[in-house]
Amino acid sequence: MAVYKNSSVTMEDEYNQKTESLFELATILGQQDDFQEILRLVTSKASVLFNAEIASILMVNPDTQNTIKTIVREGDVIQGQRCKLVQTNVMGWVSKNRQSFLTDDIRKDARFKKNLFEDCTVGSVMCVPLHSQGSSIGYLIVFGRSEGKEFDSKALCLFEKFATIVAPFLSNVQKIQEYFNAPLPEAALLAKYEPLGLLGRSRQFIELLRAIDAAARCDVRVLLEGQSGTGKELIARAIHQLSSRKQYPFVALDCGAIPENLIESELFGHVRGAFTGALHDRKGLFDEANHGTLFMDEAGNLPQSMQAKLLRVLQESEIRPVGSNRPHKVDVRIISASSTALSDMVDARKFREDLYYRLHVYPIKIPTLNERQDDIPLLAHFFLTKFAHQQQKKLAAFHKSLLNFMKFRHWTGNIRELENFVERLVTLASPQMTTLDHDILPAEFQEEYIELTKRRQFPSVQKSLQADLAEHEAQLIRGTLIENGWNQSKAARALKISERTMRYKMERLGIRRPD
Asked: Once rounded to an integer, what is the mean pLDDT over residues 510-515?
C-alpha cells in the first residue's frame, strides 16, 4: 500500500483518521447554536479533510426554490472568483443528473463545452448535493489544490458521507433565508468579551468572537492559527474562562522556548533519579493542568520524537513521567496554537499528519491587525489609557493625524507591536500633556508618517465642529471612567464637573460600562 506524507502513515490509515474526524465533527455541530459558526466549521473541515484549495457551501433559497447562492467559502479568495464559472456549471450538472460529481481535471472534462474553463487554474473538482427530509437544500463543492493533487473515487465516497453528516445541521430554513436577505452582522458578543481583554468592532473581529464563543461551549481540542502578536494566548484564556473547566487551572507552554532534551520532562514530569540532577519527583504540565486546559503555543516547534509521544497521550489520555514505569490517567483539554500553518508543515513533512488531525478538531483562524483596521483606534485608546495610568500621566486622547497614521500603517507585529508603540509614545510624553499628536513620533517613524501623508492614504473625513468635539469629549470621559474604575463620582471630580453632568453626558454620548 502506498505511503502518504509521513512514512508511518498509509493511505488506509489516513482514510480511517478522516472517517474518525467526521464523527468528531458531528459531535461538535450538535453542540452549536450559531448557524454562522456551523457554516464556518463545515467549510473549514472540508478544506482540511480533502486538502482542498477552496471549499464552498451553496444553498437553495427556501422561499423560491429557484435561486442558489454561495453563502460561505473557505480558501483562496482570488482563485474563488476565477472558479465561479466552474462552480455554476458543476452545480448545474449535479442538479440535472441528481448525482455527485467528480473530475480529475475540469479543463478537459468532456461533460462540458471545450475550452469553457481554460482560464481556471484548478483541476480536480468534487461536488455533492445536500439533502434534508427528502429535499435538496444545497450543494458542497471542493476544488483540488493547484499543485496537481487529484480527488479519486475514495475521496468522493468520503465527501458524500461528509455531506450526509452535515446536511441536517445546514437545514435551518429561517437562517438560510437570512443570507438571501443580506442581514448586517450582529455584535451581541462584544460586551461579553471586553472584560476578558478582547476588544474590537470590525466584522472580522465579530466573526472571531463567534468562533471563540462556540469553542468555549465544546469540550474539544482547539487549534488557533494566526500570526505572531495576534493574541492567541489571550484567546485561549478566554475559551478556558468561559468553558466548563474554568474552575481548574489554565497552564501555558511555549513549545519553542524549551530545549528538546527537557521538553518531555516539562510536559510529563519525572521521578527522582530519572536523570542527573533529578533529585526529587516533579509534576509535569499535564498534571498541573489536570481537569483544566493546557495551552501549547507554537506547537509546530515540537520535535518529531515528542510529536509521537503527544499523539499517544491524546489517544490514551494517560502520561508516563520520565523514569517511571507507571502511566496514569489525565483529563486535560488541549488548545494548541501556531503562527505557521500546520497543514503546510505536514506537507513539508515537519509535522505528523496523524497528530495534526488530532489537534485540528476545532480550528480558529485569527485575523491580523491589518485585517482589523477599523479596530485600531479602539485598541490604541485602550493601550493609551492603560499606560497613562501606569506612568501617572494625564494623557487621554490621540490627535486625529496620529490616529490616522496608526490606522493606515502596516503592523508587522500585529497587536503586540501596536501596544509597544503606544507605550513608547506615552513614555515620551510630558507629564502635563493630555493629547498625543504626530509631533511626538520618534525619528524613525517621522519619515513613514510624511510618506503616508504624501500618498494621501489618510481619508479626508469631513466632520462638523460639533461632531468632532463630541468625539473628543466621549474619548476623554471614557478614558477618565476607566482610570477611576468606572466610579462616576471620582471621574466627575477628576474632570471638575458635577456627577449629574457626568450622567447626562454619558447618556448623550452613549457611554456605558461593559458588563
From this structure: 72
C-alpha cell at 433: 500633556
pLDDT of residue 32: 84
Contact 210, 37 (CB under 8 A): yes
Q: Does domain 190-274+282-365 have CATH number 3.40.50.800?
A: no
The CATH class of 11-181 is: alpha beta
DSSP state at residue 124: -
d(CA 492, CA 424): 29
Q: Tell me the C-alpha distance between 401 and 468, whole Å.
A: 13
CATH of domain 370-509: 1.10.8.60
pTM: 0.65
Indicate the pLDDT class of residue 4, thresholds 50, 70 and 90.
very low
What stretch of H or E contains 376? Answer: helix 376-390
Evaluate whether 456 touches 462 at the Cβ level (below 8 Å).
no
What are the extents of the domains in the chain?
A: 11-181, 190-274+282-365, 370-509
pLDDT digits (tens, 9 = 90+) for 347-382: 999 999 999 999 999 999 999 999 999 899 999 999
Q: Do 29 and 170 form a contact (C-beta atoms < 8 A)?
A: no
Average pLDDT of 36-51?
88
What pLDDT sits at residue 164?
Answer: 92
**120-129 average pLDDT score:** 86
Cα separation, 496 vs 158, whole angstroms: 69
For residues 245 and 217, what is the distance between their CA atoms, to the nearest angstrom?
A: 10
Task: Assign 141 to helix, strand or coil.
Answer: strand
Between CA 127 and CA 94 the distance in angstroms is: 7
- φ/ψ region of 443 (left if φ > 0, alpha if ψ in -120 to 50, else beta) reads alpha
Cell of 355: 497528530
Strand (E) positions, 230-292? 250-254
Residues in contact with 307: Cβ distance below 8 Å, sequence separation at least 6, in sequence order: 351, 352, 355
Are 218 and 334 contacting, i.e. CB atoms less than 8 angstroms apart? no
- Rounded CA gap, 58 and 86, in Å? 13
Cβ atoms < 10 Å from Cβ of 378 = 15
